[in-house]
């Protein structure tokens, strides 16, 4: 196995946030179903009068009116509609990032956070317009730029910093605390570095390709699910192939150049193996099979033709995915007509079916804090010692998608503390000269 | 209930108004019915001929002679509370071991305390309700209560026995120590006698040798004991060792020597797909090579090149769809064909 791949497999992006397309679809279904159930519960338990204040709008996508009749449940969003809304809001997020003049990494990290959050939480539960700003703020912090919350709020017209801070911990939990997102931008630089050492490539062509590839990388992978299904290196090569197919193919062939020697299958290195990968890097680690440096099997596995074809297949698939959302589509997502036709109906639906308890993040955080401090009051008799931000409640309710919630400390069994004997022994201990010999 | 008076050791009986000056050994008794105190003479006078009403103004309780006892606490409110608690504890005598979790035990304790509070300082209605609960509980759990009482008595017995044993052992040790001291003294006296005798008979007595022997003898008893203990321990250990050698010899072997410490835990940093050459650079990076903000700290631009190259090739051979479905190194398609093949053939085991 290639060492770079082994190292990539240690990352949280691979372990926690990479899925096959079917797995991702299943997760989204599960999230949607769970949110529907919970919101239906909440709406049913609410008094009917408070719900009927929303004026019934006439739009083609909401056929059944839930106005003055018996407390019927509103129509919920389908997973496909949720996905469409998420994509729309990612485009809004990127525009907001452009407006605030953030770097590519920060915008990409924020978009990745946003997407990851809405895999395990439904868009009906938490307001995307708020989480968008929270994602941008948190991404700034994650990438090393630490803006002041008030300045940040001013840039986006939020006077109250509470609104942004209320959603922060929520976002972290939704990300499963995997804050490190690996991007393809530096990978692009690396590819260009490598290409510039190869003979037969004009610098102008290289620069143009890099420029175009970077444009693509700023937009397309974030507007699709590419980050979940492909590694940053594969995404980068897909973008490069969209920009300049020849360059990408040249890079691949130069990397996966190893040709198996047809005659002798011994471990001897063939002198015909060209390219920069001279067997100067002996493989010293123990887990490698059949010792000795650079045996034929290993190299074939890592840089042979079989794996090259597989890689090319993966890059083609990624390229197809990216080509659905090329940077030219930016206008599509800001086009008023398109928005009116596709997005606005869903938003109207969302207004009716959103989770009433969770929609206002500031209220939610305040309620959780009170709950936590009340619980601490009744337990510890020390009112100043509350748990931060309603951790207990959140862990119970919102982590349902991850399986069993973490056990709270109250429920755990403490080791039994035994009394120190009976009265007689206690008297012995009270003796100033200690217990008897 | 009204505040109960505190008995002053020097005061007068509230009933007969006798002061201590007139009766030096005046004692006060109380009756748990109403916790009113009066001197012994009053008790005898009023209640010797059968039940009578409590002489305090406003207290209409019927008291009997045998109910009177002397109070342990000066503050009669405390006395009353202690009596109530004693009664409650006789009924609710479960211990922590009887409960599954600490929380259950604490809930039980809370319930008991609430009941006690109602009994001690509740309104009349609450007090009656609490009494009723108490009676009811006693009636229901008579067997449990009896069992717990017995268990409590046994536990106390065991503690007492243990303490007695420890005291006994301590006493024995002291006696032993005394005896040994006496023995040593006698030994010393005897040896001195023997030396004098040998001197008298003309030997030189060995001089410093004899003195050394003398010195040794002073702690000899203790030394002997230590040696014996060591021997016993050795014998005992040998016994234990013999037992363990029979069955568990393998555990005594030292663990296999580990190799040199690997700080990266087996991770390999040598690139497989590319080679880091000296001249890798990028126009976007070049402009920083003259920037003092970057150079002064000693930043090495090769680090950037290494990172960029790593990111360009890391994960190139990681096929997420396959790996997340079936596992690392396999391909979903291949696994599907293999399992289809197995299903088609069927795995019938034919036994002849």
TrEMBL record, chain A:
Residues 367-385, 420-430 have a biased composition (Basic and acidic residues). Residues 46-62 have a biased composition (Polar residues). Gene3D superfamilies: Cyclin-like. Keywords: Cyclin. Coiled coil: none annotated. Belongs to the cyclin family. Cyclin C subfamily. This is Cyclin-like domain-containing protein. It comes from Thermothielavioides terrestris (strain ATCC 38088 / NRRL 8126) (Thielavia terrestris). The lineage of its organism: Eukaryota, Fungi, Dikarya, Ascomycota, Pezizomycotina.
TrEMBL record, chain B:
GO terms for biological process: nucleotide-excision repair; regulation of transcription by RNA polymerase II. GO terms for cellular component: transcription factor TFIIH holo complex. Pfam families: MAT1, zf-C3HC4_5. Its main location: nucleus. It comes from the Eukaryota. The keyword Methyltransferase does not apply. GO terms for molecular function: cyclin-dependent protein serine/threonine kinase activator activity; zinc ion binding. Residues 13-55 form the RING-type domain. Keywords: Metal-binding, Nucleus, Zinc, Zinc-finger. It is found in: Nucleus. Residues 143-195 have a biased composition (Basic and acidic residues). Residues 143-217 are annotated as: Disordered. The keyword rRNA-binding does not apply. This is RNA polymerase II transcription factor B subunit 3. It comes from Thermothielavioides terrestris (strain ATCC 38088 / NRRL 8126) (Thielavia terrestris).
